[in-house]
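Task: sequence design from structure.
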């Protein structure tokens, strides 16, 4: 009678698709935060900020009008710090959700693998017990046959 070892059925999720679906289902604010987070973290944004800083330097040195100094100060101190940074933080939280999904999926896969390994180990232990029992039976039979052959050999040598 063959006994099947129960294995857990598990279908892994594609967390990239799950995360994309979550972002697509999110509102305008979330999508805007994600877009800004993805695009502000580029070299083009770094170049734009460098240009803004250079313009600010020229304005402070008096090479540009005072209104440019005020405008550059407002953009760099008020707009970027008070508006853009919180939006980027929201975007990072949304994008961090992907890491959470990946960690959950890795944990689920690990637990499924662990359960499968436990089932396989139990099955191997059962096989080991059966093999040891068969080995003992074969040894007993071999000893019995050997004893019979030795007895026959003694009988044959005593007669002949």
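Answer:
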């Amino acid at each position: 009678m063959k006994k099947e070892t129960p294995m857990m059925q598990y279908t892994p999720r594609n967390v990239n698709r799950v995360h994309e679906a979550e972002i697509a289902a999110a509102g305008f604010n979330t999508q805007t935060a994600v877009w800004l987070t993805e695009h502000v973290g580029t070299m083009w944004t770094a170049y734009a900020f460098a240009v803004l800083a250079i313009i600010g330097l020229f304005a402070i040195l008096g090479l540009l009008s005072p209104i440019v100094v005020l405008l550059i100060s407002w953009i760099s101190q008020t707009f970027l710090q008070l508006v853009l940074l919180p939006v980027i933080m929201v975007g990072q939280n949304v994008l961090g959700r992907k890491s959470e999904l990946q960690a959950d999926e890795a944990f689920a896969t690990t637990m499924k693998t662990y359960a499968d390994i436990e089932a396989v180990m139990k099955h191997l232990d059962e096989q080991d017990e059966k093999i040891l029992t068969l080995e003992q039976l074969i040894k007993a039979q071999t000893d019995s046959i050997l004893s019979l052959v030795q007895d026959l050999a003694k009988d044959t040598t005593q007669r002949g």
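The chain is about 85% helix and 0% strand.
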